[in-house]
Amino acid sequence: MAAFFTRFLALAASLAVSSSATTIAEINGPKFLSPLKDQAVSNVSGIITAKGPDGLWLRSIYPDRDERTSESLYVFGRAFGANLTVGDSIVVRGQVAEYRNNKDYLYLTQLSRPVLEKKVSSGTKVQPLVIGKDTRDPPTEQYSSLDGGDVFAVPNNVSLISVANPELQPKTYGLDFWESLSGELVTVQKPTALTKANRFGDTWVAGNWKVSGRNDRDGLTITDKDANPEAIIIGTPLDGTKNPTSTRMGDSVEEITGIVSYAFGFYRILPTTAIKITDSQKQELPKPTKLESKGRCSGITIGAYNVENLAPNSSHHGAVAEHIIKYLRSPDIIFVQEVQDDNGPTNDAIVSANLTLTTLTAAIKSAGGPAYTFTDIVPVDDQDGGQPGGNIRVAYLYKPELIRLYKPNPGGSLDANEVLNGPTLKYNPGRIDPANKAWTASRKPLAAQWEVISKKSSASKADTFFTVNVHFGSKGGSSSLHGDARPPVNGGVADRLAQAQITANFIKNILAKDKDARIITAGDFNEFAFVEPLEQYAQISGLKDLDAVAKIDKLERYTYLFDMNAQQLDHMFVSDSVAKSGEAKYEHIHLNTWPELASQVSDHDPSVARLDVCA
Ligand SMILES: *[C@@H]1O[C@H](CO)[C@@H](O)[C@H](O)[C@H]1NC(C)=O
Ligand SMILES: *[C@@H]1O[C@H](CO)[C@@H](O)[C@H](O)[C@H]1NC(C)=O
Ligand SMILES: *[C@@H]1O[C@H](CO)[C@@H](O)[C@H](O)[C@H]1NC(C)=O
Ligand SMILES: *[C@@H]1O[C@H](CO)[C@@H](O)[C@H](O)[C@H]1NC(C)=O
Ligand SMILES: *[C@@H]1O[C@H](CO)[C@@H](O)[C@H](O)[C@H]1NC(C)=O
């Protein structure tokens, strides 16, 4: 911090601040909202540090010693800057305003209706503040003092920053840190892209400051109570150039200088010009899994893949087939999610996915893979959410020469599966409690009982194992981690909690009849392992998180990129007998989180496990 203040104080020492002047620090104040909101201010002095299409940024020449108060300010007005340029020292009056264009966002403090009182001088050289050098390092774990220590805590949205307006604690909370630099011209040295650029070229980065959660690919992974507030998004360049859209997680980026601002729900740096990738990740795709099937119950392989709105005419059948054959090494059974009906998003009464699934299994076969068979249960039309008309559902692909349904007896769309003595299932496969309102506009889990076909002896019930394929409700409706609601709204969390409880209780019923039952549940849970729905899921069901069982490094537990974070939505949970077998291996294959946006096949990574399901 020392350098930060010395630079200003040297300047300030020669100038006395009169009571009839308002400083930029006074306008910003030590909280999120300006103490001078809606007031007219005059005699505001500053040096222009940057210009944008709708205004310019001023840095104070009368800084205070308070690190909470930003020394820079956005002056909003398209015409105002017409005759002004970077390096001009000006005196301005106007009205302090708090602006946001969406009620879920934070307010940006600005000076509106500016009038130039005086141009004092021009040609002052403007130095950006180097983040982590002229400023402290951004905090690495917590976002806001209003989050109660956990940005994903339930209940969420218990307070609003715009109402509570807490005092900034830039040392501890990420939002407070970025707010304390609002309007400032900053430099990010040695930036690394943390996730792939979005279609506008917006790119999350961290500079050469301390970070937590760095994974092997140089992204940042969310862990319990650490959601990476040290990341900052690089937004639209001020000079009208465009950021590349091909940036991938872990790419090195040229030093970035720009203005700290807030828009579209996030603090962001608006770079003076487009960012440049200096060193792109070499290896585009991960290595294939090391897990190969043993071809018998002591080591069958289980794949899990959300294939993102797969319809019969989807262009990604071939790529999914290649992923399954080459990178997942053709697992013996594959839990797939987001399989659409036989005419995809066409919104009519068709619900069968036979054509979709036949198209996929044919693509696998024709690419040299095994001849998979599939099973699914059709949903009731338009009742399971997802893309309208698509009727997405979960399904199993399996190798019929190795695995078969144990006494198949498929249930109907609304038949609730039950655990019978044995244990066996009333419907095999069958959906779990499909009429329960917890599943409104969501996929119903599909429970099945299987036997591994043994070459030696005929299979008996003792050789069976159970599976549950899930695709819980989506996080749609979530508010931004940088948004007004604290803790942020975790969209659909109440539904997922109810869904987790229903599914877990079904599994508990199997284990009540046979504590050694071999059970594998997998799929897109749309939630993190350390958030309430999955904590309860594990606790009620008694299942073990396979990531933990297989001792996967916490930072490598990711299957999805969202905003600044690598995160895990796709999980596998297994019963004790499977967990304890000594053959509980698991890998997440980063086929879709690593490539650039335009090259990803699905938005989720697939995973593959090898498990012992013998008696
Ligand atoms: C404006 O502020 C400067 C610096 O504090 C001061 O010297 C000057 O008197 C003020 N001018 C007016 C008109 O208040
Ligand atoms: C900019 O300068 C031109 C030419 O002197 C003048 O006509 C115009 O009004 C000025 N614009 C502003 C916003 O001061
Ligand atoms: C597949 O068909 C649907 C209509 O059923 C259409 O909207 C979509 O664009 C088609 N997709 C491809 C890849 O051809
Ligand atoms: C889909 O396949 C299943 C199993 O072969 C069959 O029972 C069902 O009738 C098929 N549905 C349609 C619409 O062809
Ligand atoms: C959070 O709660 C407030 C009411 O306190 C409500 O106005 C707002 O819409 C909620 N935010 C979100 C994102 O749901």
TrEMBL record:
Positions of the Endonuclease/exonuclease/phosphatase domain: 305-604
Keyword Nuclease annotated: yes
Molecular-function GO term, any one: endonuclease activity
Pfam families tied to this protein: Exo_endo_phos
Domain of life: Eukaryota
Signal peptide: 1-21
UniProt xrefs under SUPFAM superfamilies: DNase I-like
Keywords carried by this UniProt record: Endonuclease, Hydrolase, Nuclease, Signal
Protein name: Endonuclease/exonuclease/phosphatase family protein-like protein
Taxonomic source organism: Cucurbitaria berberidis CBS 394.84
